């Protein structure tokens, strides 16, 4: 199958390549219940050498930057309690951690979660974290610009491979809250 965006050799419906996905992502695809059919979640094999956003879009298609989103894990703290959450923003922006995220989580302080926490709690590789398959108890803050895109390139849970997903699907994931202005100018 031809990928709807980017310059990839092939795109495979995620339900047809569950063995290529990390366990939490494969489980999420198996239990998929959004209005977008699971078969519209496409997996593309990529070289981990090109996993970082700038190198990736240069190698796989310059137009991908406007169609890509980054998922980061944040930690909000209030009164000794820590809440982990994920944020999905357009790749050309950065997450407004100290403003929008802190307010959305009702936290006194918010920061990016340490790498060991993000990887350990998500079950995904650093640099490949995706909103599909994250712990259901985590809030998932999604920039409104992401859900408006016809197709979005995101991580697959590991550095080798990406997912192509219709943008509106992200607003239907467990714990998702669509937020205006979550991503700010980079």
UniProtKB/TrEMBL annotation:
Name assigned to this protein: YbaK/EbsC family protein
Organism: Streptomyces roseirectus
GO molecular function, one term: aminoacyl-tRNA deacylase activity
Residues covered by the YbaK/aminoacyl-tRNA synthetase-associated domain: 55-164
């Amino acid at each position: 199958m031809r990928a709807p965006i980017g310059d990839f050799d092939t795109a495979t419906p995620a339900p047809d390549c569950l063995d290529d996905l990390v366990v939490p992502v494969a489980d999420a695809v198996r239990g998929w219940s959004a209005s977008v059919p699971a078969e519209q979640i496409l997996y593309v094999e990529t070289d981990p050498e090109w996993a970082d956003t700038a190198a990736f879009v240069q190698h796989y298609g310059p137009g991908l930057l406007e169609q890509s989103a980054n998922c980061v894990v944040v930690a909000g703290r209030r009164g000794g309690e820590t809440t982990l959450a994920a944020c999905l923003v357009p790749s050309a922006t950065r997450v407004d951690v100290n403003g929008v995220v802190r307010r959305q989580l009702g936290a006194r302080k918010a920061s990016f979660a340490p790498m060991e926490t993000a990887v350990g709690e998500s079950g995904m590789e650093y640099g490949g974290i995706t909103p599909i398959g994250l712990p259901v108890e985590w809030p998932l803050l999604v920039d409104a610009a992401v859900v408006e895109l016809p197709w979005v390139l995101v991580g697959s849970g590991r550095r080798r491979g990406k997912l192509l997903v219709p943008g509106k699907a992200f607003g239907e994931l467990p714990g998702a809250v669509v937020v205006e202005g979550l991503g700010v100018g980079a």
